[in-house]
Design brief:
The chain is built from 13 helices and 19 strands. The chain has helices spanning 12-23, 48-56, 60-66, 92-97, 106-119, 247-251, 259-266, 300-303, 312-330, 337-363, 367-380, 382-386, 390-393; strands at 5-8, 28-32, 43-46, 72-77, 83-88, 102-105, 123-127, 130-136, 142-148, 151-157, 160-162, 181-193, 205-210, 213-220, 225-233, 242-245, 271-278, 287-288, 295-297. Residues 5-353 form the FAD-binding domain.
Length: 400
């Protein structure tokens, strides 16, 4: 039973899980279909719950060196440009929860995880390995098949972990598993050099609220660049799940927005449009076990979610910490593993998904309902609004 645990997918969730397992003494092989590790997308937000996990696996310092700790979330009206409220972030949240709130380029986070994995003696990364299916081997072990440039190869493992994203190939092999669906929202992403952005916008995370659309932005790469994400309620007409978009067509959505917002949106020459797809955390199992072999899902493969709570990456990072602890306490072949994992993760992740959906509705209100929302936010104040997230931010991983 000395074969390593196999993780399919070398994204943020897979690499983080590999480090969490290796930190607890397990041998891990990470298999990635791409010939080289690259990250799609731009920025992400790492709240204290995620940063506690990154500290535990020894990468928080290297992530923080490439990230930014914004002063606050500056919430504004997309229509008027007026400030609605400010939610304090740094150093307020670190003082409160013992870990920072960071904004990072996805590539920087993935690079830090990859470098740590490459340096770890218990982790092997194999590129150019596309998951092709699985079977049950002897004693309930998993036989995982992979396509490579040299042909097909089969690896035996006590535990197979699918961390291969919202369109997970591993999930498709699990009977009754939920499938990814389009959420009715799209994201338009662009980045700018810092010198093109007003200095006051480089200190905060910006959140602009508007009818059927909202805008999020924040500094990246330790303040060297600026991430813009416009999120819109609309249908998806393209043939693929991401596509370049005509700049003028995109900007028509924001014709009636405040000049200060339009000046930011006017800057990028190119925007990339993404369909936001999700996987219902409560629909179907997160894996299979027993006589079918131990196969578990993690991150977007189990619960891809809307980004309106800024917790997609954090939930994948939490998954890895919890799963590594369970594997250590129960063993990778224990038939109780799946049930214990679901007990500890499903309810929390489903609640975060519900929070993200609710935020999306609140952000996109119009007319009298938007005025009421803005009034409530102003009266409540930033610190009181942040307390609604306390149940998310105060979470910490099991001790090693």
């Amino acid at each position: 039973m000395s074969d390593p645990i196999l993780i399919v997918g070398a994204g943020i969730g897979g690499l983080n899980a590999a480090l969490a397992l290796a930190t607890r003494g397990h041998r891990v092989t990470v298999l990635e279909r791409a010939a080289e590790i690259t990250e799609v997308g731009a920025g992400l937000q790492l709240s204290p719950n995620a940063c506690h996990c990154l500290r535990q696996i020894g990468v928080l310092e290297s992530v923080a060196a490439r990230a930014t700790a914004p002063d606050a979330i500056h919430v504004r009206s997309g229509h008027s440009g007026a400030t609605i409220t400010r939610l304090p972030l740094s150093p307020y949240l670190e003082d409160l929860y013992g870990a920072p709130y960071l904004v990072s380029h996805r590539a920087d986070l993935q690079r830090a995880l990859h470098e740590a994995c490459e340096a770890h003696e218990r982790i092997e990364i194999r590129l150019g390995h596309a998951f092709a299916g699985r079977e049950t081997g002897s004693n309930g072990r998993v036989l995982a098949r992979f396509e490579t440039a040299e042909g097909q190869t089969t690896l035996e493992t006590p535990l197979l972990i699918g961390a291969d994203g919202v369109w997970s190939a591993v999930r498709k092999t699990i009977p009754g598993a939920a499938q990814a669906t389009f959420t009715g929202r799209t994201a338009y992403r662009a980045t700018l050099p810092a010198e093109l952005v007003p200095a006051d916008e480089m200190r905060d995370t910006g959140l602009w609220l508007g009818s059927e659309a909202h805008l999020v932005h924040y500094p990246l790469e330790a303040g060297r660049s600026f991430n813009l994400v416009a999120l819109i309620r609309e249908d998806w007409q393209e043939e693929t799940w991401s596509a370049p978009v005509a700049r003028d067509t995109f900007l028509k959505t924001f014709t009636r927005w405040a000049p200060s917002a339009r000046r930011l949106l006017d800057q990028p020459e190119t925007w990339l449009k993404w369909a936001l797809c999700g996987v219902d955390a409560l629909a179907g199992p997160w894996g299979t076990g027993g006589e079918n072999g131990q196969t578990l899902l993690l991150g977007d493969a189990a619960h891809g979610m809307l980004p309106f709570a800024a917790q997609g990456a954090a939930m994948a990072i939490e998954d890895g910490a919890v799963l590594a602890d369970l594997v250590t306490r129960l063993g990778p072949s224990d038939t109780r593993l799946l049930a214990a994992y679901k007990t500890l993760r499903k309810e929390r992740v489903a609640k975060v998904q519900a929070t993200a959906r609710s935020n999306g509705e609140i952000y996109h209100l119009s007319g009298p309902m938007a005025l009421a929302r803005d009034t409530v936010m102003r009266v409540a104040g930033g610190r009181n609004l942040l307390r609604r997230q306390d149940w998310i931010y105060r979470w910490q991983p099991p001790a090693v």
